[in-house]
Design brief:
four-stranded antiparallel β-sheet; alpha/beta; six-stranded mixed β-sheet; Rossmann fold; 9 helices
Length: 239
């Protein structure tokens, strides 16, 4: 009697990707896969191309070579709005909330990707209770940690197929980092697929399934977080 394992579904498949800023090559033949329901982390020092990789997935930088497939559909030549509507949620480094708009207005903007239909999902307030208490407060009046929670909630408003998080712990106080970690683990239990760019290794050890390490625009190591040699990876990403 044969027991067939369920086929692994790859939500994001990137092969031989190159990215440029002007004439400068930033990414070199990058290959990276994100399996459905997994949390994948891209580690590396500052300036090695991690954020550029996420921008490449979103279509925000020049990517003349390679392949980016979302659920088996090639999107490398598609505009940013197409990728967002196809199901990629993106929280950039620095969060990019609208400081002169209220928390509620920022969340409503997250719905614009799907034409603004429907109300703000109530589960966002379960994930981030502080936002419900601050609906009428301007985004610029929030702390850095609260702004990060708002940015993640805004990206989740349309239930993305793939969530990209760029340095979610940067400049955040430890208590908020723990809250964000708990939210990410809850999202994983609910079936979300997440790709995180991060430098804080301890944060990743508690939440991620798979990791990649980038240096000088290329992937230099990858594997399962459960089998990671922590000291070796820490050396590779040390500033």
């Amino acid at each position: 009697m044969f027991i067939w394992e369920e086929a692994v579904k790859i939500v994001l498949e990137v092969n031989n990707l190159e990215a440029y800023y002007g004439e400068s090559v930033i990414l070199k033949n990058v290959c990276l896969n994100v399996q459905q329901g997994h949390i994948v982390c891209l580690l590396g020092r500052n300036g090695v191309g991690k954020s550029t990789f996420l921008k490449s997935v979103m279509g925000l930088v020049h990517t003349p070579c390679g392949s980016i497939c979302l659920n088996n559909e090639e999107i490398i030549d598609k505009p940013t709005y197409f990728r967002a509507r196809a199901g990629i949620g993106y929280v950039p480094q620095g969060r990019d909330i609208f400081p002169h708009m209220t928390v509620e207005e920022n969340l409503q903007l997250g719905l614009e990707i799907k034409g603004g239909r429907g109300g703000i999902p109530q589960e966002l307030y379960e994930l981030f209770p502080v936002l419900k208490e601050m609906l009428t407060r301007k985004g610029g009046d929030l702390s850095g940690g609260q702004q990060q929670q708002l940015a993640i909630a805004r990206a989740l408003a349309v239930h993305p197929k793939l969530l990209l998080l760029d340095e979610p712990t940067e400049g955040i106080q430890p208590s908020i980092i723990k809250d964000i970690g708990r939210v990410i683990l809850r999202l994983k239990k609910e079936g979300y697929t997440i790709l995180i760019v991060e430098q804080y290794l301890e944060f990743i050890l508690g939440i991620a399934d798979d990791y990649y390490v980038m240096d000088k625009g290329a992937i230099i190591a990858q594997g399962l977080v459960s089998a990671m040699n922590k000291e070796d990876i820490q050396h590779k990403i040390a500033i």
